[in-house]
Specification:
Largest interface: A-B, 62 and 62 residues
Order of helices and strands of chain A: HHHHEEHH
Strand content of chain A: 5-15%
Oligomer: homodimer
Largest sheet of chain A: 2 strands, antiparallel
Helix content of chain A: 55-70%
Number of helices of chain A: 6
Radius of gyration of chain A: 19 Å
CATH class of chain A: Mainly Alpha
Low-confidence stretches of chain A: 1-10
DNA sequence: TATTGTTATACTCTATAACTATA
DNA sequence: TATAGTTATAGAGTATAACAATA
């Protein structure tokens, strides 16, 4: 009993609702669940800030890193993102296909490519940085400046 | 040029390394990236604590919620996890197939099922809770008790 | 031998949408 | 009409493994 293929739509992304009257038991005392909930909220805000642009957090991260470290190799890029080399390659392909970066042979090492932003990539990144930072600030507005700093510090400590 | 199909192995899961000598630019000032890094660390620790058991954070969450709210429906379960109904169903299938929960018809509403832990599920959950909580405490040991409480508070506030 | 980038492939998670039974 | 659960399908993300070129 075949179903017709579904037309693809961009992902909707459900927020994690705190269901009233439910007992969350030990979850409320675990850092893991708290982190997950906070992350989903921030992720949703990220999407709102970059609506229309075909961007995701890993793609944004990759562009920022390439922008700040011109000529970085794809393996190092993968490490920053916590993904395998093959994934870093696909990310680089994606950026290159949109004319945001270009690969340049490294003179000293014929195996590796350096990834560099194009002028177009520079421009897009500047605009994206602006809106993402503004959104992050807006999102964090429920916290005082001191609380925000403290949160960043504690997260950094926890990440190790 | 066909390749032989790869035998499947359990996922390795790369940590997010902080690459020395790299400029992280604006990422160091964004809550989103800090959350991501912290979450990956906690996720890795979770896996270490549940090694051998075929458990993941969503599966653990589902078991805890069912345990604390016997007879909960699958839609509510999906809301807690931030996933669609179909996903909650597959999670329930997974738990049921392992004899951890059972579905029981609700008397008042013939549409919905209540999900309940089996004795086997109770026992496994108790053991899992113990090791996951212990691991969370261990992971959080880089923080003082006050810092840990403060982090939970700030994350909760941020999650909204 | 080891590393960088690459390609092929497989798997997990989760979404959308249509469907059934019940309300 | 609306909701709970279900089934079928699609797609994103990312892993592993084998490969070629270079070190």
């Amino acid at each position: 009993m075949k179903r017709p293929p579904s037309p693809h739509r961009p992902r909707a992304l459900a927020p994690i609702a705190r269901v009233a009257g439910l007992d969350y038991d030990v979850l409320d005392r675990l850092l893991g669940y708290a982190l997950r909930r906070a992350q989903v909220g921030v992720f949703l805000a990220f999407h709102a800030a970059t609506r229309g642009q075909d961007i995701t957090p890993p793609r944004f991260t990759a562009l920022v890193i390439v922008g700040a470290n011109p000529g970085i190799g794809q393996s190092a890029l993968g490490q920053v993102l916590g993904i395998a080399r093959s994934g870093a390659m696909m990310l680089t392909d994606w950026m290159e296909a949109r004319g945001l970066v270009e690969r340049r042979r490294r003179p000293n090492d014929g195996r590796s490519w350096g990834v560099h932003l194009t002028p177009r990539g520079e421009k897009l990144l500047a605009a994206m940085k602006h809106s993402v930072v503004a959104q992050d600030r807006r999102r964090a507005a429920v916290l005082s400046a001191a609380e925000r700093r403290e949160l960043l510090r504690l997260l950094e400590k926890l990440a190790g």
